[in-house]
Amino acid sequence: MKSKDNAAGFGILAILILLVLLPLAAVLFQVVCPGLQIEKFDPSNLKLVLDVFVRPLWKKAFFNSFFLSIGTTVIGLLLAAFLAHVRVRYSFFGARFLDIVSWILMIVPSFILAQGWVYFASGNGIASAWLGIEGVGGFVFSYWGLVFVMVLCKYPLAYVTIKAAMEWYPSRLVHAARMNGASPFRAWLTVQLPLCIPAYCSAAMLIFMDTVGDYGMSSTITAVYSFPTLPYTIYSAICSSPVRFDMAGVLSFYLMIMIMIAMIIQYAAMGKRKFDFLDNGTEQVTPQRIGRIKSAALSAVTFCFCLAALGIPVGSNLIMSFSSSVSIQRFRFTLDNYAKVFQTGSQLLTGVKHSLSLAGVAAAIGIIIGFCVAYVLTYSLFKLKKVIDMMTLIAMAVPGVVLGIGYIFVWNQKWLTPLGLHLYGKPSILVLASVAAAIPLINRVLVGGMAKVPKSLLIAAQVQGAGFGRRMRTVLLPLLHGSVVSAVLAAFGGSVFNLAITTILYPPNYSTLPVYISDSYNDLKFGYAAAATIVGAAFIIGIMLILEYLMNLSRSGTNRPACAARSPRRNCAAETGRGDRFAGDSQTRP
To answer: What is the mean pLDDT of residues 237-252?
Structure first.
């Protein structure tokens, strides 16, 4: 068993080195060897590492990213935990609407959301010019305003993770606590909450990493409010003349340092304790029906929240798509922008086609690799598990533009041409970069789910003669159905709208949807860019909703994994009559 764990671990490690470590090492090496030109190698450039606390721009970018990420993580985690608890525990009219809005916010790129907030809160924006609300711009374009906007943009990452972890209810442990005098709140605080620590830690890491490495939001907001962050400063260093490769390497190094510190905190919080609790005393949660007044109140609060999180940025883009002017104050209704989008020969459909194909391939490859990574981290005895975990986290922390630059350095070498591996300028490099960006998110979601499943279930199935494939199919995958669906959809949506990577790596005459929208926006065609955004996003979201429905069709048949773990050759339905209560047998899914 240990030899198999080592073989799988080294295989996963090799894949991650190729996808993640080599590109990032190429970028970091720019500090001492700008442009990877050996004749420019100068070890004395290492002193630049300390300049981040001396040079005003570097220092400001570092602390802006740090405090913005901390504020967003703390508030976003609290908000996501509250929403997930309400969604899982109670049945109300707006519950499904909250899920849909969260998924939309997860896949819509941050630069589009930021663009909508700029249209709404700027001096001549919708809030001031149309609604007569003063002071909105002063709040949004401040530190706490940016934290507010980032929380509304990033909370779905934590919401999906925590919600998937709350699907199972340790009824036997909770009943034991209640019988010993614990109140419902104390039972939740001392039993359920500690068992969900892996999910909360994963959720916090997702928010922190996505915030600290976000380029789209900071670049859009910076055009209105001077708030440089590390990703934006790195991009400026790469695009400046002359190109500052050393500056990009130093700032990327500090991004990784922040992630390592966050990982140390996560490991300290979890320690060496085990958090698996799925056994014959575990039930699947069924949302409780509540009174009409409470249901109406929850639904009203949910709709107001969704209006602020999604309605304002998307609505602002929608309004701009019907404008013939670049200013809201000079708004004139027109359908010309949509007419241009749908005209014959429009590049939008071509961009959508390319984005869908790339996202589909990246999600398929990413879920396979991500599942293997999560399995190795959770169940194997591989000694380098923490190295694998660190590499997956670093991939999410580094901005996509930096990862894209690293892929150029790695896959644009002349000696790769005879080997047929000169991938720069080909769609395959986009697939590799998209997979590298998707693996950390997939891994975090699946690790949070696997932490609930004890290894003893898999061992029991193995003792009964089930092979590895059968154990995965009849035990682990049914218990991880919600997490797998969440991971696939998140990877697919993130790959479709990955602006940074596609902007850097897209081949000539191979435009993608985010590049198409960004080019139109940069050409000051705001109305046309907004129309393309609305049409493209609606099309992609529709496809994702259909995909989610298809993936959940077989969900009702995955509710008896514990019986399969005990005896994969026996019928679970025949065992339920003996009085045993196994995970998934006592209740059906809502």
So the answer is: 75
